[in-house]
Amino acid sequence: MKIAISSCLMGEPCRFDGRACPNETARSLRDVDGVELVELCPEVLGGLPVPRPPSEIAASERVLRVTNAEGADVTAAFIEGARKALEIVQQNGCKLAVLKAKSPACGSGRVYDGTFTGTLAEGYGAAARLLRGEGVRVIDEERLRAALAASEARHPGARPGLLADSAADCPVLETERLVLRAIVPDDAEDVFAYCSDPDVGADAGWPMHRTIEDSRAFIEAVACEPHVFGLFEKLPASGSAAAPGDGGAALRTGPCIGSVGLIPDPQRRNVDALMLGYSMAKPAWGRGLMTEASREVLRYGFEELALDLVTCTHYPFNDRSRRVIEKCGFAHEGILHAAEVGPDGVVRDLESYCLRRDDWRVSARG
Fold this sequence. Notes:
By secondary structure, this protein is α/β, with parallel strands linked by helices.
C-alpha cells in the first residue's frame, strides 16, 4: 500500500518558516510491513521557496484564493503545487494521503481563515481539495493518530484497518456471539449454502448463486475487498454445554452464515463515507445477529477508519433490513427513485439512510 504524506511530517524542513514538524505517528508508518510512503510538499512543488511568508486561504470566498502575510496573491503557486501533488499520487496509485493539519495546501477539514489572526474555519487546503475530488482519501496527523490508537487498543499488534489493502489485511472483529473475519476460498461451500437461497439475494440486490463457482467468484471479486467480513457464529467447543458469552467458556466458530462490510457508496462522491452492506443465511434470521454485527462494523468504521459518515439502503419491501438499520441509529434521508436494477431486471427504488460520526457517538453512549 502506498500512502502519500506531507514531507514536513516526516522531518523535511520545508515549512514556510524553514522548519519541519515531525510527527511520530506519521513516521511510524515506515515500520508497517507492505506500506510505502510517498513524501511530497505541495507548496514546494508549486515553486514557493523555503523559507517564505506564511499563506492562508480566504475561507469566506467560494473560489480558491490564497494570499501571503505580505498581501501577495499566491493562488497560482498553490494550484500548481496541488496539480503536481495529484500527479505524483496518481502515478504511485495512492488511495490515502496523510497531510499536515490546518495548512493552506494540506489542511483537511479546518484551515486558517485568511485573516492571519490564528482563526480557524471549515475548509480544505488547495492540494487536499484536489485530491479528495479525484477520489483520494485525505486525513491529517491527528485523525491518523486516533485511528491507529483505536486499532491498537482493540487488536494489539495487528495491522490497522485504515492501512488495509484487502479483506485479508483487516483485523478480526468480535461481538458477544460472532467472529467477523475475511471470507477465504475454504468458505466457498458455506457461502454457497446461503447465497443459493433465492430469498437472500433477492432482498440484498444480487442474483442467487446457482453453482459453487458463483460463490468462489464472489469471494475472489467482492469479499476480498477491504472492510468486508464474513460472519461466523461462536459455538460451544465440542463436548461443552457452555453458551457463547459465558466467561471463560471454550468456544469454536461455526460455518460462514453471512457477510457484512463497509463499501463505496455508488450514490455519493465522498471519500470519507462508506456504505454498510450485509446479507445473512435464512436460518440465522430473527435472532438479532445482523444488528449485533452491524453495530461492531460501525464502531470499526468510525473509530478505526476515521469515517465521517456511513450510509445504508434497502428496497422498500425489505422490512427486516429496515429494522436492522433503525436499531443501529441511522436517520432516514428519503427515497432514491428508480435507483438501481434489481436481480429480476426491475428498476427499483431505494430507501436511503445515513449515520454521522457525532450521531453515532451519541447512540453508542446510550
